[in-house]
């Protein structure tokens, strides 16, 4: 992989060309990982960032309190990222303790394994209904018709989003996660639409509360405000911006990562017919295969950006305070220094320690829900469609053109 001129015009090493990370991810990461533990690249916002590639460093830095998520710790001019209004930006992906601890505590009970297990049967019914709809056709884009539908239905049901308000959500999400260079205003328009959506939804739930997570969060917010709190400044308090931002994050993260976790897992199994047949014959093995599926082709290539609170050293390279650090889970998961034969998919090796759902205090809040949805989606699909196969040559499948996420553009299948 070649270095490029430092187009950003900042001091420091030349930037590594990131085009190969889009075109041929894992070989490009292997080359970087072999060359060194950290590299200077053009980040997801186009500005210079430090990419960490080796498993031990990535795992350690996920839990290192010297790396902050709050953008206020970014050096001036170092980071732009999404241009979110304050009403959506007061979320867990931009928070450090103690605010992170306070806000996370208010919602974590909704995603405990016990509560999630109660949702398994409703999720199974949704999966069966989606498969009922496509079964007569004998073929479908599984990403659009199944993997892309199940998570949005589940998370919207959990939050209490009415059916009529769900139709535009995927377009908004795609505009934010994978911006289209041909439509430079699309992301900004999506942010505006989502802000209006959440503001109106919260107002409706406040007027007519129901038995759902968003109504519960509104009740917590309003009860505290009535006691003179609610400004987010103390223990157990939730500001109005934090309430809106939390709803935004739950819906966006609960949809985006799970869609690609399901689709990527289906593709992995189609690429490995023996494993596919084994899980079809014994669906109980799907739960055990989850960790290997998430490691081998996880939905996120990078962790959320971080900013050192002080100069830190990684593998002999000093990263100045305030500069952007990107932790590559995709590279860590293929690191032969930690995983035996990392480029092979083998659910029987019992390889533990994947980072697909994060690590440390920012470990994915909805991990139990994502795991249950993927297990349920795969079990229903393999049972219903025993002849499942790709409907296009494998080389025609495309991945979304971003270094941030690992997601297919489409997944045409037949049965």
Automatic annotation (TrEMBL):
InterPro entries membership: Cyt_P450, Cyt_P450_B, Cyt_P450_sf, EF_Hand_1_Ca_BS
Coiled-coil segments on the chain, per record: none
Domain of life of the native organism: Bacteria
Family stated for the protein in its record: Belongs to the cytochrome P450 family.
Protein name: Cytochrome P450
């Amino acid at each position: 992989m070649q270095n490029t001129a430092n187009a950003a015009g900042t001091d420091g090493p030349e930037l590594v060309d990131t085009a190969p990370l889009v075109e041929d991810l894992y070989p490009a990461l292997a080359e970087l990982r072999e060359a060194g533990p950290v590299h200077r690249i053009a980040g997801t916002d186009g500005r210079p960032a430090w990419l960490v590639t080796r498993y031990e460093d990535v795992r350690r830095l996920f839990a290192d309190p010297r790396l902050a998520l709050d953008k206020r710790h970014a050096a001036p001019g170092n980071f732009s990222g999404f241009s979110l209004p304050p009403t959506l930006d007061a979320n867990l992906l931009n928070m450090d303790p103690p605010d992170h601890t306070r806000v996370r505590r208010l919602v974590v009970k909704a995603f405990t394994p016990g509560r999630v297990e109660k949702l398994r049967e409703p999720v199974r019914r949704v999966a069966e209904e989606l498969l009922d709809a496509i079964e007569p056709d004998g073929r479908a884009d599984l990403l659009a018709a199944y993997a892309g539908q199940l998570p949005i239905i589940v998370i919207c049901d959990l939050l209490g989003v009415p059916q009529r308000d769900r139709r535009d959500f995927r377009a908004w999400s795609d505009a934010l996660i994978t911006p289209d260079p041909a439509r430079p205003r699309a992301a900004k328009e999506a942010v505006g639409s989502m802000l209006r959506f959440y503001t109106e939804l919260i107002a409706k739930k406040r007027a007519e509360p129901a038995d759902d997570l968003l109504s519960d969060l509104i009740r917590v917010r309003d009860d505290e405000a009535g006691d003179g709190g609610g400004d987010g400044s103390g223990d157990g308090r939730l500001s109005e911006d934090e309430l809106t931002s939390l709803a935004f994050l739950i819906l966006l993260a609960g949809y985006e990562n799970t869609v690609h976790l399901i689709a990527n897992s289906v593709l992995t199994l189609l690429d490995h017919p023996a494993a596919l047949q084994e899980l079809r014959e014994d669906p109980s093995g799907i739960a055990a295969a989850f960790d290997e599926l998430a490691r081998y082709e996880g939905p996120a290539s990078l962790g959320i950006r971080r900013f050192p609170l002080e100069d830190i050293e990684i593998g002999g390279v000093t990263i100045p305070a305030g500069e952007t650090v990107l932790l590559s889970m995709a590279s860590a998961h293929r690191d032969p220094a930690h995983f035996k034969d990392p480029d092979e998919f083998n659910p029987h090796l019992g390889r533990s320690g994947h980072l697909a759902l994060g690590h440390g205090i920012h470990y994915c809040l909805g991990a139990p829900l994502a795991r249950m949805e993927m297990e349920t989606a795969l079990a229903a699909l393999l049972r219903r469609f025993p002849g499942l196969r790709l409907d296009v040559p494998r080389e025609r499948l495309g991945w979304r053109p971003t270094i941030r996420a690992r997601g297919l553009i489409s997944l045409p299948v037949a049965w």
